[in-house]
Amino acid sequence: MKKLYRDLSPEARASYGITEDGSEESWVYCLTCGRAVPQGDCVVGEDGRLECAYGDCRPTSASHASTDLRAWDTLAQEQGGAAAHWPEKPEWGRRYPLRDADL
Ligand SMILES: [Zn+2]
């Protein structure tokens, strides 16, 4: 059984957390598969980082040992107009292409 972010103690959350508030309800975006997931559902990785919650998500290159997660709201700001249609609360399982992604 994989350990999830929501199972962590407050102290552990402080080191694993991706979003500023560290809430398990706040959303993170996976750069590897382009989908969003509540932080609480993210898997606690062996390398000390959180990993994508989607079971079919795999790092695409050897340079990425694990999946790459970002805070949803921070990333939306960085993406600017390309993320103008991004909702405050994303949908589970939906892909949200990035500005730089090949569409
Ligand atoms: Zn992913």
Q: Could you give the topology of this structure?
A:
Blueprint: H1 10-16, E1 27-30, E2 36-38, E3 43-44, E4 50-51, E5 69-71, H2 72-79
Antiparallel strand pairs: 1-2, 1-5, 3-4
The chain binds zinc ion.
Task: Tell me briefly what this model is.
This protein is of the alpha+beta class and 103 residues long. It is built from two helices and five strands.
Structural overview:
The protein is of the alpha+beta class. It has one domain. The protein is built from two helices and five strands; from the N terminus they run αβββββα. The N and C termini lie far apart (36 Å). Bound molecules: zinc ion (ZN). Zinc ion binds next to loops.
Helix content: 10-25%
- Gyration radius (Cα, Å) is 13 Å
The 3D shape can be described as: globular
Main sheet: strands, sense, barrel? 3 strands, antiparallel
Major β-sheet strand ordering: 2-1-5
Q: What gap, in angstroms, lies between the N and C termini?
A: 36 Å
Domain count, please report it.
Answer: 1
Secondary structure category: alpha+beta
Total helices: the number is: 2
Each distinct ligand: zinc ion
Average pLDDT reading: 89
List keywords for this structure.
103 residues, alpha+beta, three-stranded antiparallel sheet, two-stranded antiparallel ribbon, 5 strands, 14% strand, globular, binds zinc ion
